[in-house]
Design a protein that fits this description.
Helix content: over 70%
Strand content: under 5%
Number of strands: 0
Number of domains: 1
Radius of gyration: 21 Å
Number of helices: 17
Amino acid sequence: MAATKDMTEGSPMKLILGFSIPLLFGYLFQQLYNLVDTMIVGQFLGVDALAAVGATGSINFLIIGFCNGVCNGFALPVAHRFGAKDYKSLKKLWANSIWLASGFAVIMTIATVILCRWILRMMQTPENIMEYSYQYIVIIFMGIPTTFLFNLTSGMIRALGNSRTPLVILLISSVLNIIMDLVFIVDFHLGVSGAALATVLSQLIAGVIFVVYIIKKVDMLHLQKDELPLQKREIVELFNAGVPMGLQYSITAIGSVILQTAVNSLGSAAVASVTAAGKISMFIVCPFDSMGATMATYGGQNAGGYKLDRLHKGLGSCVLLGAIYSAFAFGVIYFLGPTLLHLFVDAGETQILANSQRFLLTNALFYFPLALVNIVRFMIQGMGFGVFAILAGVFEMIARTLIGIVFVPMFGFGAACFANPLAWIFADAFLIPAYFSVWKKMKKQVEARSI
């Protein structure tokens, strides 16, 4: 299995498919153990426990999404150096990303664990599920260092063009998570705490495996003594790449938190409906996530090598794939949605099932705008223009906030179903012109270099 892959040469469509398919299976297995968490919680612990886990979803996305975004952002300068064949600078970036990620992990763990219960109360988490929600999310927050370990190492390996190794390691992690879910919840009776503990431990094991793989197989990431100290230039570059990407996730999540607060005010039945639908939707949209991650690496390597013509070709190929899959995904939701929902909710909960299917179908109608959000935003990030991704997140936040504050109180659950579609459309309205703007800016840079 190749440790690296140069994406600056060869057919863009072939490279995109070859890179994204292993990523897709990795995302699917990540979501699989999230689905298993939800299925086991819903079937063995009841609707209140299911709603409790769901009520933490947006704040989980806010915090853990920032961690993931920062690590993915750290990988972008590494992809640039790989595309430019500047391996000495690449190693310095890798060393300094370890220091920076460690600092973020310590600060964020302490802050989130201390503020956890206050955050849940600010989100108007229903009292009947408050304790369950706290038990679940506080363990997830305690595991933030494992989140950084996992995402930093896997992100660096993908930046070097290798998406197959992360797939294998995610497979191992997913199987371990499922086994630990069953043991902790069914055998040890740890409740929702068991589901959170299984997630953290499986991620820790995967992170350790990534480290061992880098030591044994990825010579390009082996560090010498003189490459280990903190260096201001690399720290600044990593910070400028990682923090905007993390903030993009978090700013998007702020809108989700506001929307979740509005849904929480409708009661635990509404929360359970969104939770069940959201879990299925997250599984169905995994291909969009893999397309986005592919565009980040593809865009990073080709921007680093100043292969601007390949950026257009790669983007067009990926958008075509997104359109085809969007139509397929809608068909799956339309015909199989009710059957899939029974995996999470008992057949007697007719109102929850009806609301969940309504939420799923409304979102599925707008999957192509979601595909564009992922493809175009991550391409822009890969090209090195992270600020534009933050602004796209602001547009998403505005849309979800508008629905949560204005329309959910007026129209109830039906309005919540349109929050995500509106957010995706708002983001696309900004991202599509932004891509052409940054491409023209890069073209001018190339022309200036040639002169």
